[in-house]
Each structure stands twice: as structure tokens, then as C-alpha cells.
Design goal:
about 300 residues, alpha/beta
Length: about 300
């Protein structure tokens, strides 16, 4: 079998699969032989104005091995219907790529509960709902002798570093990292893998970024022009059965493949015994014993403000 067809017979669901990184992933999965369900309601980057024609157009272009699913996945029951649609059309579900995301940025002192709820619903609750619906079928398929399934969650460096005005977006993406770890653990006996990718590519998300300082403006001008196909290549690899990697957090920045560390203690100290703490002594001890391990407030845009390798 040629490398181009290593996913022949596999079935994938890709959320947000009609544009940007999601579309690049859909096209690469399809090129490699997979049947693909394009789960995309066609909303704007803010989650408004749905347009089912967006996904339908991509599915029509790809042909019989592609299916558009345009329901709003934030609605109860829609994730289950997406899984049912994949199983009915193609007989199984092997790959889930949680890519869909919206942005409603504002500084925390101007943030609204409505915008928070919608971003969390789309960027975190939908991945949970889709995996809760898909993993029972993936477990049963593996028990029946089908090759184990693969899950890929598209996260963001904003969820790891933080960024100005992105309390909802960063919180949702950080939560998706946690979900990745738990799903990897829960599905380990079934040999279903679950990994995350923090992508660096030119998308509607990066276009909407409003630089907060000169460093961020420079980053947006130079580094956020990377084509999405680099992310698609890694997502497709993680969707294959060539590997058994699970619970890992990768980054893709052009031709750079990054492996991110995950939170673990980096230093340790003992506080004084008893209930009467000397706070000034504690402050001195923290600075002396833990100071070298403290994390600064550099954003992701500033940390990665170097020329990408493409």
C-alpha cells in the first residue's frame, strides 16, 4: 500500500472541517484514503451566522467518501447524531479530530458571561460531547478486531501561555489539554490513542488577533503566515495506526515539530511547621528556593516571535 493510501477504509470526523486548519486536515485525511465527515455549521469566527453550504460545498468537491454534517454541535444530541451519521454512511468511526473553535475576546474586566459560555460550549464542551458519543463505538470496534481508533484535539499555545483578552478561549483550550490526558487514560485499555496539537498557521483565528504591543504586532506580521498543511500532516499521522503515541502535546510551526512539556513540579521547599507562619520569611524563602523556577508573563505570541521555518 502506498503512503498516500495508508488510511484506506478508515472513517474520520473533523469538526470545523470546512475552513482553515480543519479543511487542511480533511483534505489530507481524504488524500490518504479516509472517508470524512465534515462537521461544520459554517459560522463566523465569533460563532454567528451559520451557513450549511460551507461544509456541503467541500463534501461535494471531495465526492462520495465525504459527508457534510452542518448541525450546531453545541445543541444537546447533535454530537450523537454526528457519530450516527458517520457510522450509517461509512460503517464505523476510527478518527475524531476536535478542531472547531470560536473567539470572543475581551479583557477580563470587560468580559460577559454570555460570550464565556458560548466559547466554552464550542471549544470544550463540544469535544467532550463528541468523544463521549464516539468512544463507546470505538471501544466496541476494537473488541471486534478493528484497528484501534485515534483522537486528535487541536488546542492552542494561548491555553498554555495565556494571552491578553483571551480568558474564555485560553481556558477552553487549556481544558482541552486536560481532556486529552484523561481520554488517553480512559481509552488506553482499548489502545485508542488521544493526543493534542497546538498549531501555528495562518487562519481566521490568527487574522482576528489584535496585537497588544509591538512584539505581538511583529509576530503577527512575520510568523502567522504559515500554511495550514503542516498541521494537517501531523494530525493525519496521529490519526494513523503507524504509531502508539498517546497523551502527548505537540506543536507544529512550519517544519518545526515541537513536543511540549506538561505540568509537573519543577521545585520543592518546606514551609515552617505550626500554624503561625512568618509571611516575610516565606516570601524570602520562595524567592531564594523557588525563584529560578517561577514562570514569567510572556504570552505565546512573544515567546514564539522568531522567523518560522517553512
Amino acid at each position: 500500500m502506498s503512503m498516500a493510501q495508508t488510511l484506506s477504509g478508515r472513517v474520520a470526523i473533523v469538526t470545523g472541517g470546512a475552513r482553515g486548519i480543519g479543511l487542511a486536515i480533511v483534505e489530507e485525511l481524504h488524500r490518504r484514503g479516509a472517508s470524512v465527515v465534515i462537521a461544520d455549521s459554517g459560522v463566523s469566527i465569533a460563532g454567528a451566522d451559520p451557513d450549511p453550504a460551507v461544509a456541503a460545498t467541500i463534501a461535494a468537491k471531495l465526492g462520495a467518501s465525504a459527508l457534510a454534517f452542518s448541525e450546531d454541535l453545541t445543541i444537546a444530541g447533535a454530537a450523537e447524531r454526528a457519530v450516527q451519521a458517520a457510522a450509517s454512511a461509512f460503517g464505523a468511526i476510527d478518527i475524531v479530530v476536535n478542531n472547531a473553535a470560536i473567539l470572543r475576546d475581551s479583557f477580563i474586566f470587560k468580559a460577559s458571561r454570555e460570550n464565556w459560555d458560548q466559547v466554552i460550549a464550542t471549544n470544550l464542551t463540544v469535544p467532550f460531547a463528541l468523544l463521549a458519543a464516539a468512544t463507546p463505538l470505538m471501544r466496541e470496534q476494537q473488541k471486534s478486531g478493528r484497528a484501534p481508533g485515534r483522537i486528535v484535539n487541536i488546542v492552542s499555545s494561548a491555553g498554555l501561555f495565556g494571552n491578553f483578552g483571551q480568558s474564555a478561549y485560553a481556558s477552553a483550550k487549556a481544558g482541552l489539554v486536560g481532556l486529552t490526558r484523561v481520554v488517553a487514560m480512559d481509552m488506553s485499555r482499548s489502545k485508542v490513542t488521544c493526543n493534542a496539537i497546538a498549531p501555528f498557521a495562518a487562519t481566521r483565528v490568527t487574522e482576528s488577533i489584535q496585537p497588544a504591543n509591538d512584539a505581538q504586532a511583529s509576530y503577527k506580521q512575520r510568523a502567522l503566515r504559515i500554511p495550514a498543511h503542516y498541521v494537517a500532516r501531523l494530525a493525519t499521522f496521529l490519526g494513523s495506526n503507524i504509531h502508539e503515541l498517546t497523551g502527548q502535546l505537540f506543536g507544529v510551526r512550519g517544519r518545526e515539530l515541537l513536543l511540549f512539556s506538561q505540568p509537573r513540579p519543577v521545585a520543592r521547599m518546606l514551609m515552617s511547621a505550626g500554624s503561625d507562619w512568618d509571611e516575610e520569611a516565606l516570601a524570602r524563602t520562595i524567592n531564594a528556593e523557588l525563584g529560578s523556577g517561577l514562570t514569567d508573563l510572556a504570552t505565546d505570541l512573544e515567546f514564539f516571535n522568531t522567523e518560522p521555518i517553512v
